[in-house]
Amino acid sequence: MAYDHEEQEQLATLKAWWQRNGNLTSWVLIVALAGYSGWAGWQYYQRTQAAQAGQLYDELQNAIAAKDTAKVMRAAGDMQSRFSGTAYAQMSALSAAKVAFDANDLKTAKTQLQWVAEHGTEEYKAIAKLRLAGVLLDEKAYDEALKVLATATVAQFAGAVADRKGDVLVAQNKLAEARTAYLAALAATDKNNPGRQLIQVKLEAIGGTVPEDKAKADKAAA
User: Fold this and answer.
1) What is the spatial distance between Cα 29 and Cα 75, in angstroms, rounded to a whole number?
2) Which residues of 11-48 are buried (b: 16+ CB within 10 A; e: fewer)?
3) Does the model's pTM come out above 0.85?
4) Staple partner for 105: which of 100, 161, 168, 200, CB 3.0–4.6 Å?
5) Residues 6 or more apart from 134 whose CB is under 8 A from it?
6) Distance between CA atoms of residues 125 and 127, nearest Å
7) What whole-number distance in Å separates Cα of residue 109 and Cα of residue 111?
8) Which stretches make up the Ancillary SecYEG translocon subunit/Cell division coordinator CpoB TPR domain (predicted)?
């Protein structure tokens, strides 16, 4: 009977605690469950969005293969309006810009690249700005091209940005500044990158000197 009495006391204590804290506890539990439900729902939404965006991206690529420019642009527009938060939207815009550029529609190409420059991840923004600067170079909008390049600050694209800057400066006949840009491009470009050779050719074409490879210099000195 002592055990039963102790059990009754524990039950009475539990009831008293629940009367004081039960409402708060229920709300905490409800919030926790709602949070989990929301997280699970968001994950499902993200997966669904990615799947649908992937299908639309395939349609865009098929339109590119079929040389259906109008369909490419429609698909890119749909992607940006419906799936702007996915990587597919950024890739679609870059693809649409290339199609427009090849069709000599520079206005549309710039619009697509500007969208990526404003809405993409840092890496995609840098790619878009590099290509946008190239379009502006073709349009002879040199100062605008340099302004765009000045905002492309992702380290992994430093060599490409400096190279494009050199191209713009050459077009402006600012050869001393162009040589500095090409030297910076060489310094930031891996020695195994096949693009280095083209940078060297451009540098030498405007009277620049390619820095001697340190390993070759050491070997020659020995």
Assistant:
1) 44
2) eeeeeeeeeeeeeeeeeeeeeeeeeeeeeeeeeeeeee
3) no
4) 100
5) 145, 164
6) 5
7) 5
8) 15-207
Least Cα distance to 129 among 111, 142, 138, 116 occurs for 116
Quickly tell me which residue has 């039960």 as its tokens. 22
Please count the other Cβ atoms lying within 10 Å of the Cβ belonging to residue 113: 30
Hey, is 11 helix, strand or coil? helix
- Output the six-digit token pair for 108: 């549309």
pLDDT: is 28 or 181 the higher one?
Answer: 181
- Using the structure block, give the residue that is written with the tokens 């810009």: 97
The amino acid at 173: N
The position carrying tokens 């030297």 is: 183
- In the prediction, which pLDDT does 7 show? 62
Among candidates 155, 214, 147, which has minimal Cα distance to 184?
Answer: 155
Q: Tens digits of per-residue pLDDT, 34-91?
A: 554 444 544 544 566 677 888 899 999 999 999 999 999 999 999 999 988 888 899 9
Specify whether the CB–CB gap between 205 and 189 falls below 8 A: no
Domain ranges of the chain: 29-120
Question: What's 155's DSSP letter?
Answer: G
